[in-house]
């Protein structure tokens, strides 16, 4: 076994069997490695890790070709079963592993997790990929890309898009486009709205759900939802008022998060470059889970109104806290920018998207200083900068499409 591979395994040799099967490094090793473990010298690893290494590999071998469908509730229930059987002790064996498949924990995994592993080893999953040919920072107008490949533009500051019950899309109440059906093997065909910096968009989906898209955002949506579920894909920031339909759940996929709702209003912000995804629930209830390619799928938590879930993309964990002023997170839909204990740099990034400008901080200026307040973005840029400079006590210079910030 080559030294780099040995080093990678040593880094994770303290993980339990469950943690191994939920570890990206280990899963990648099993997917890409052609090494015959039985022929390798594993004396340098602790005995428990060696046992778990062979156990995990055998589980994956047994499940690899499974294609059974697994419901959302079954994915959640599996954790209870795994937790119950986690303490079952197995006899140590390095080569002959199949006899242990009779144990209850392995049987549960075989019956319940087949499709999750199938997805892990089949990269052509149902994850939607936005059109790479239209980066938001290169556009001057909002673009609508139909599932047929046709493109339309809106020059409005706040574009209006409505999906009708007859399968057409109305743009700015002036143009109606019929959308021809497109055959898709793996998922419902999607249309896209791409909102450049300096603009916003308001959408009404075919089920009556209303979506406000902030500057620099994308949304992928179907003309008609499937019979089983309603699903859209987001990159950026949006406020949703989801039309209630208890028979058909509504899902928002944003970065590594999956948001599941019935009838709910909430704000979610997850721009591509951001290190975190923030979800704030206004009304109803919302299930937040981290999308996972591991065997054990995604764990979830349930938000109550006036709670915020912050997902750290690097650490892959979710922090939940109460929100005192919910309007701080939804005011942008009315042209306000609210911020509570946010760094000047964060506020500047949001202003960059709204005004399509670029901030530059001079040497010695503390852009991480935390501030709170609210700005009326409907005012001119000059007026907004005057207010912000009074709050933070800095001086600024506007030149073309750039603002230089420096100490007074």
Give the second-level CATH assignment, the architecture of the largest domain: Sandwich
The best one-word shape is globular
Number of strands: 23
Catalogue the unreliable spans: 63-125, 293-297
Task: Give an overview of the whole structure.
This protein is of the alpha+beta class. It folds into three domains: 118 residues, no CATH class; 187 residues, Jelly Rolls (Sandwich), CATH 2.60.120; 73 residues, Phage tail protein beta-alpha-beta fold. The chain contains ten helices and 23 strands. It has an 18-stranded mixed beta sheet that branches. Strands 20-23-22 form a three-stranded mixed beta sheet, with helices on one face. A hairpin with a 2-residue loop joins β22 and β23. α5 packs antiparallel against α6. The longest helix is centred in the N-terminal third of the chain and has 17 residues. It is globular, with a radius of gyration of 25 Å. The protein starts with a helix and ends with a strand. About 17% of the residues have low confidence.
Q: Tags for this entry?
A:
408 residues; alpha+beta; Jelly Rolls; Phage tail protein beta-alpha-beta fold; 3 domains; 18-stranded mixed beta sheet; three-stranded mixed beta sheet; 24% helix; 32% strand
